[in-house]
Automatic annotation (TrEMBL):
SUPFAM superfamilies: FAD/NAD(P)-binding domain (SSF51905), Succinate dehydrogenase/fumarate reductase flavoprotein C-terminal domain (SSF46977), Succinate dehydrogenase/fumarate reductase flavoprotein, catalytic domain (SSF56425). It is a peripheral membrane protein. GO terms for cellular component: plasma membrane. This is succinate dehydrogenase. Residues 532-666 form the Fumarate reductase/succinate dehydrogenase flavoprotein-like C-terminal domain. Pfam families: FAD_binding_2, Succ_DH_flav_C. It catalyses: a quinone + succinate = fumarate + a quinol. Residues 36-470 form the FAD-dependent oxidoreductase 2 FAD-binding domain.
Length: 667
């Protein structure tokens, strides 16, 4: 255990995956019936993996803390899913999708994994169409595409602003079919509290029934962690309230390396923070940047007047608006990658041009798109001399057809009509590129323990391009893991059922119960949320959109002190043997207090700027990220040694044979 062997196949890049599938071991259908697999997490990666493996004949057990797999956070992915089908005829290909993803990730991801992702992307669309996912279609009947940040082609398939939800319903239908066949046993309202190792292999989990409080033992021949990302350690994020790092972090503490924890995605189009009362943030889909233009006032006095309510944005003349992304990045304009757009927004707001009461917001304006679409629709209707009101009305109808539910959601939250007044947006934590280190087969450094989707680190490098999360989750679940897990399970066809009455299960259950009882016995003065909010402020202020050596060293010290205080002064009411949501939160925040320190350590160690990791000491004269390929062209893989500060760094050197390493430019 612990050796960083990525198991990347030899041969030309475009042939690696096919060659690998032809050479790995298989399990025959009769033997699959005797093998059990646990899948933790039922989002797109977990549900697609569970359904695919059950269809192959494995006995699958799924676990999720929600009351239904349908409620996984994958439903919040609004904008679309990438695939290199080239339906638009604009020059897309597997290689171009691969290249855009490598470049978008600022050259900090594996070539082999990313090319495989691009290679299977088209299969995902076919699979989902067969499941009935209602992708948008163009006039001729073909599936429609739109563009997303960081690319020059249209390759994003979408279902209005509900793409994640529709894709998850497709996967959920496939899961339900296998539940009905008896091939999947679904455990909802269950939370994984520990991984159980037998002879060094992952052989099961300890889970808590969140309704009864009962601690349960579940065994299997392999375990798949597909439990999503850890962005909620920032407290305010676009994640759902319950999203946590528990399954991945407890797996890390059992020996799985944790890779690139400091690589966090800051999404540029989030509804801004309105006050201390908030417990989460809401995302506006990146798809809106296709038609929305981002701007702030050119003059400081105008920005101040807007903040004070003396001036409306619609009253500001065109020549007094600074479309700063179009000005700074003319080739990509408003469709630069997320990290670039986020830093640009922060720079303008820090300079005093922010437009809401807190000074931390910019405008996303659809007036130009409404006019353009209105003129086009009027022309096709034969209205050659349509007046402004007619054009406006027709244009709004087109925009509503494309983004209606997003506009409706914005109006409900902000109480402003985005058809009439520009949306206000500001960057927020949205996704984590870091996660459990996995090899080419998606296996962690623990034999028999796999990780899929956002829970692993594998495909996005230092910055994820928009619409690639759904692509990776479904690629891992439908088209990678069902092949690669068989290579490992081929050695287990004679193992027989894994017993749960072994010393290893006894020890794991005992440790879990002791931790729960310790949390309940502290009887301190502060709530769990008190510590979560304090951690979030440390993370956002010192490990957020930009970092520096001084702030990171302070963060490491402050998080360690906060964690020490947590274990002395937290108050968790109730008892362990019943439904207890405060106890659930306490366990999750305890893990956040540990990964937060490792996050800051990783950011301090990486003395360069790349993608979403922006160290203020390492930037170009224009304020862009400055990589150091000589010293930091590697994956940081951390081994747990008892405390976050004692973690040992392992490096997986990244080799680039098919793309040229160069400074990213979107100008």
């Amino acid at each position: 255990m612990g050796k960083l062997d990525s198991k990347i196949p030899s041969g030309p890049l475009a042939e690696k995956w096919t060659k690998h599938k032809n050479e790995i071991n298989l399990v025959n259908p009769a033997n699959k019936r005797n093998i059990d697999v646990i899948v933790v997490g039922t989002g797109l990666a977990g549900s697609s993996a569970a359904a695919s493996m059950a269809e192959l004949g494995y006995n699958v057990k799924t676990f999720c803390y929600q009351d239904s797999p349908r409620r996984a956070h994958s439903i919040a992915a609004q904008g679309g899913i990438n695939a290199s089908k080239n339906y638009q005829g604009d020059g897309d290909s597997d290689y171009r999708l691969f290249y855009d993803t490598i470049k978008g990730g600022d050259y900090r991801s594996r070539e082999a994994n990313v090319y495989r992702l691009a290679e299977v992307s088209s299969n995902i669309i076919d699979q989902c169409v067969a499941q009935g996912v209602p992708f948008a279609r163009e006039y001729g009947g073909l599936l429609d595409n739109r563009s997303f940040g960081g690319v020059l082609v249209s390759r994003t398939f979408y279902a209005k602003g509900q793409t994640g939800q529709q894709l998850l319903l497709g996967a959920y239908g496939a899961v339900n079919r296998q539940i009905n066949r008896g091939k999947i046993k679904s455990h909802t309202r269950h939370e994984m509290l520990d991984l159980v190792l037998v002879d060094g292999k992952a052989r099961g989990i300890i889970a808590r029934n969140l309704v009864t409080g009962e601690i349960e033992r579940h065994s299997a021949h392999a375990v798949v962690i597909a439990s999503g990302g850890y962005g909620n350690l920032f407290f305010l994020s676009t994640y759902c309230m319950g999203a946590n790092v528990m399954a991945a972090w407890r797996t890390h503490k059992k020996g799985a390396y944790f890779a690139n924890p400091c690589f966090t995605q800051i999404h540029p189009t989030c509804i801004p923070v309105s006050g201390d009362h908030q417990s989460k943030l809401t995302l506006m889909s990146e798809s809106l940047r296709n038609d929305g233009r981002i701007w702030v006032p050119k003059k400081l006095e105008d920005a101040k007047a807007i903040r004070e309510g003396r001036l409306k944005p619609t009253e500001l003349a065109e020549e007094d608006r600074d479309y700063y992304l179009e000005r700074r990045y003319p080739a990509f304009g408003n469709l630069v990658p997320r990290d670039v757009a986020s830093r640009a927004a922060k720079e303008r707001c820090d300079a005093g041009y922010g437009v809401n009461k807190t000074g931390e917001a910019v405008y996303l304006d659809f007036s130009a798109a409404i006019e353009r679409y209105g003129k086009e629709k009027a022309y096709t209707m034969g209205l050659k001399d349509a007046d402004k009101d007619t054009i406006r009305k027709l244009g709004e109808e087109v925009v509503e057809a494309k983004y209606g539910n997003l506009f409706q959601m914005y109006e409900k939250i902000v109480d402003e009509n985005p058809y009439k007044t520009p949306m206000m947006i500001y960057p927020a934590v949205h996704y984590t590129m870091g996660g459990l280190w996995v090899d080419y087969n998606l296996m962690t450094t623990i034999p028999g323990c796999y990780s899929a989707g956002e829970a692993n680190f594998s495909d996005h490098g230092a910055n994820r391009l928009g619409a690639s999360a759904l692509m990776q989750g479904l690629a891992d679940g439908y088209f990678v893991l069902p092949y690669t897990i068989g290579d490992y399970l081929a050695d287990d066809i004679r193992t027989g059922p894994i017993p749960t009455d072994s010393p290893e299960f006894d020890e794991a259950e005992k440790a879990v119960k002791e931790k729960l009882n310790r949390l309940l016995s502290i009887k301190g003065e502060n709530s769990v949320d008190y510590y979560h909010k304090k951690l979030g402020k440390i993370m956002w202020n010192k490990c957020g959109m930009s970092r520096n050596e001084k702030g990171l060293k302070e963060a490491i010290k402050e998080i360690a002190e906060l964690r020490e205080d947590f274990w002395k002064n937290v108050r968790v009411p109730g008892e362990a043997n019943s439904k207890n949501q405060e106890l659930e939160k306490a366990g999750r925040v305890a893990d956040f207090l540990e990964i937060g320190e490792l996050f800051a350590m990783d950011a301090l160690n990486r003395e360069e700027s790349c993608g979403g990791h922006f160290r203020e000491e390492y930037q170009t004269p224009e304020g862009e990220a400055l990589r150091d390929d000589k010293n930091f062209r590697y994956v940081s893989a951390w081994e747990y040694k008892g405390e976050p500060r004692e973690s040992k760094l392992h490096k997986e050197e990244l080799v680039f044979e098919n793309v040229e390493l160069k400074t990213r430019s979107y100008k």
